[in-house]
Amino acid sequence: MSKVLVTGAAGFIGSHVCMRLLERGDTVVGLDNLNDYYDIALKEARLARFSKHKQFHFVKLDLSDRAGMEALFDTHGFDQVVNLAAQAGVRYSLENPHAYIDSNIVGFLNVLEGCRHHHIKHLVYASSSSVYGANEAQPFSVHDNVDHPLSLYAASKKSNELMAHSYAHLYGLPTTGLRFFTVYGPWGRPDMAPFLFTDAIANGRAIKVFNHGKMKRDFTYIDDIVEGVIRTLDHTVEGNADWDGGHPDAASSRAPWKVYNIGNSTPVSLMRFIEVIESALGKEAEKIFMPMQPGDVHETSANVDALIDAVGFQPSTPLEQGMHAFVDWYHDYYNGRS
Questions:
Q1: What strands, in cross-sheet order, belong to the sheet with 80-83?
Q2: pTM recorded for the entire structure
Q3: Cα dist. 236→132, 311, 315 in Å?
Q4: Helix or strand or coil: residue 118?
Q5: Which of 224, 245, 210 is closest to 319 using CA atoms?
Q6: Beta-strand relationship, 268-269 and 216-217
Q7: Which residues partner with 85 through β-bridges?
């Protein structure tokens, strides 16, 4: 069993990853700064689920706190690190860009430095489908270049991949980046469409439908994301001996560095997505059709061939099944707090 640092432990994906690691017997140190980007009570409720696990230790700390991060790595003998902490949200990056540099750039550097100096066996970190930016070829492939981000959030995630590569090359630090595609499910983030739409429809409020509904997203259920994270963590990356600098593959390197897509590979139109929520709730949505938002893209679709080849896993949970599970959780969570 391993001792694993999971950053963003009070977050949506982070809390689920912590639970899976604990259930299989690992010791987990969960880090989070519990910021108020969204409801802190939801973050605290996620953490409360770990109260019965003696192998879980929570540390309230900001990734950008250099001294605090150095002390954290000095204190604990981590075997592996899963970095899921970040300032999230594409649209919020237009309002508060400095938060993305502090957390996603400075904070990630502190993680890399901790891993480097303490000989971490494997660093797995969250990237994002947003790195594909202006790319139009579908489905998105990790072998394509991603040099045209459409938001600072996307640029920060691309930066993480580049920073990780430099540490893999210079110090032999095994690093794997995971490009998540629109993650949803129980305990999901209140700032994302599955939660926003469900909450509005359930409470009789209109929903904003951007680009007049003419968008598609590769919705990926949380259990599939966690399975991909765990399998990747257990599959320590090695350098690609066949990598050719004359014809460089964007997804691998001679250094121990790789990136993978994790998505359902089944893009769903925004209008179909709303229909699924309406069915799960048994209520029809009042819709306000809006123009495209800055930083958004028309469609996301994941090519996951590289993930399948590496760890033998492909996300497959149907949207209807996943959204019914989310709606069930939504009712349980809010009825229990009423």
A1: 56-60, 27-32, 3-7, 80-83, 122-128, 175-180, 257-262
A2: 0.95
A3: 25, 10, 20
A4: coil
A5: 224
A6: antiparallel
A7: none
Q: Which residue type occupies 309?
A: D
pLDDT along the chain (338 residues), means of 10: 96 98 98 94 97 97 97 97 88 84 95 98 97 94 95 94 98 98 96 94 94 93 98 98 96 98 95 96 94 84 96 96 97 78
Catalytic residue among 38, 125, 132, 153: 153
CA angle 283, 288, 293 (to 5 degrees): 125
pLDDT of residue 89: 74
Q: What DSSP character marks residue 284?
A: P
Give the contacts of 99 (CB within 8 A, at least 6 positions apart).
87, 92
132 is catalytic: no
Six-digit token pair at 320?
Answer: 């209807």
DSSP annotation string for 166-185: HHHHHH---EEEEEE-SEES
pLDDT number for residue 88: 78
Dump strand ranges (E) for 183-294: 183-184, 207-209, 216-217, 220-221, 257-262, 268-269, 287-289
Q: Are strands 216-217 and 80-83 parallel, antiparallel or unpaired?
A: unpaired
Bridge partners of residue 216, in order along the sequence: 269, 299
**What is the pLDDT, as a whole number, of residue 254?**
98
Query: pLDDT value at position 96?
Result: 86
β-strand pairing of 183-184 with 80-83: unpaired
